[in-house]
Known about the structure:
The complex is a heterodimer of chains A (166) and B (111).
Chain A: H1 3-24, H2 28-48, H3 52-77, H4 89-112, H5 131-140, H6 143-165
Helix pairs in contact in A: 1-2, 2-3
Chain B: H1 3-23, H2 27-57, H3 67-98
Amino acid sequence: MSTVDILFYLLSAFAIVSATMVLISKNPIHSVLWLILVFFAISGHYILLNAQFLAIVNIIVYAGAIMVLFLFVIMLMNIKKDAEPQKQLLVKLTGVVAAGSLLTLLIAVVKQTTQIQDKQVLLKEGSIGLIHPLGQALFTDYVIPFEISSVLFLSAMVGAVIIGKK
Amino acid sequence: MSIQYYIILCLTLFSIGVVGVLTRRNAIIVFMCIELMLNAVNLLLVAFSKMYHGAALQSAANTTAGIDAQIFVFFIMVVAAAEVSVGLAIIVMMYRNTHSVDINFLNRLKN
């Protein structure tokens, strides 16, 4: 087992355990902190796949900006730790069973698909994840979606301010 | 590393997100679980991109095949950031009206 394999399994276990803790935590702030750990694990996966630009963007945008926004909102609301009413046990069980059967079904499909049986993912090689090729593609082939996304941001900003001011 | 491991990891993360959306009642936690599902999909897109790139590298030395998926992931992150800002504004507005973030209060459309 090579170092890359060990790192893959470690990061995967880390991500899954942290994601489970997001669900289990009673305190919303703990959930946010666990979710930040999930994002760091996913960034580690990106680095393993040599997608360095996305790794950095993931940390800056998700762990840095979005989760801080979540923390701000939670602290602004001053929600008590045990204020969240729990769903009935039956509803919880139904949710877990439904998602579990979805997972089982999809894994069975993946196991049986012959087209991806022996496909390998290129780890730590390949230069498409670096800034230079990504920037070149973004500003030549995808320049119109890039500009449209700035309009989207403007409208989201206006919408958030209008909703917040009401 | 086989692509199947990546698919199974991402499916697991996605299913954990689905469990969160179905079982929690705090609107903020539900929103966070949606972010988790988005991130699982992002990771799978990058893994597929590298799979495709590795296959294309064998025929041409300096190809950029597979770069589209990473651009898509970038745009998904952009849209997620915009979505979070509006969604959290809506949750704050809802908290101001009902003094709660329980999603079971939001059933007024039912009748």
